[in-house]
Design a protein that fits this description.
This protein has eleven helices and six strands. It is α+β, with helices and mostly antiparallel strands. It has two domains: 3-160, no CATH class; 169-240, no CATH class. Helix 10 (192-200) packs across helix 11 (219-240).
């Protein structure tokens, strides 16, 4: 028998928590969202919001760790928390505490004057504050899924977030000449800056045979592939500059 049946607990439709705090990852993950807002734009009490985000229990985990889109910190969370009304990645607290990014007024108002969703908020609150490790396991096993079609969040982040960078190869090659940025890339992940340097020094005007695709790759395809990978590596430096990892 599942914990949902034992607790007489069911969720569906409008009773699901609403997603907040998700961003594009300089690629295809969450392509409907922009990047986080610029740092130092907080519209709230940083200590209070950080405490609120960290106090609620974990309702689920991901297959891999997240990376901060601003400073490159990794891992920056690998799970999701919820207060029954909203759900957010555990790494959102880092964006608040370290980078002091803006958040939606409706979410800040909710933190200041919490709205509750009946039994769900009460259940998560109770399990979150129990010291018994089994309480955390029960909360995870409930498999509470966030409501992903969060139009309010999508509209907000796409109005206040930063656009994905669309650099030219020439602009990326110029970036690769900055030793401080290459050092920052290598600090984030061993050898990533060196990999970026090698990519920028490749001759992209030549076709070459791809074993993975089983055919010749044209210069245009090769250029696009290099741009896609380079933006995932160097995108944060283009958008936010060389922000030190907190």
């Amino acid at each position: 028998m599942s914990w949902k049946k034992i607790l007489k607990f069911e969720l569906s439709g409008d009773s699901l928590p609403i997603m907040i705090g998700y961003w594009n990852n300089y690629g295809n993950y969450y392509p409907q969202y922009k990047l986080p807002p610029k740092p130092n734009t907080a519209n709230y009490d940083i200590a209070k919001v950080t405490k609120y985000l960290n106090r609620w229990g974990v309702i689920g985990s991901y297959r891999g760790p997240s990376t901060c889109r601003i400073c490159g910190k990794m891992p920056n969370g690998i799970a999701e928390r919820s207060d029954g009304v909203y759900s957010w990645p555990t790494g959102l607290a880092h964006y608040v505490e370290a980078h002091q990014i803006a958040l939606p007024d409706y979410f800040i108002e909710h933190i200041e004057n919490p709205t509750k969703k009946g039994d769900l908020t009460a259940l998560i609150d109770r399990l979150s504050n129990m010291e018994d490790e089994r309480a955390k396991q029960v909360l995870m096993q409930l498999r509470i899924q966030a409501k992903e079609d969060a139009k309010q969040w999508k509209d907000w982040v796409n109005e206040h977030g930063e656009d994905l960078p669309t650099p030219t190869i020439e602009e990326l090659q110029e970036l690769s000449k900055n030793p401080a940025i290459i050092a920052a890339m290598n600090k984030k992940r061993d050898g990533e800056g060196d990999r970026f340097l090698r990519m920028m020094n490749k001759d992209i005007s030549q076709s070459f045979y791809s074993e993975r695709r089983g055919r010749e790759i044209t210069p245009e395809e090769r250029k696009k592939n290099i741009l896609d990978v380079a933006v995932r590596i160097a995108g944060r430096f283009i958008v936010y500059g060389p922000v030190e990892e907190e």
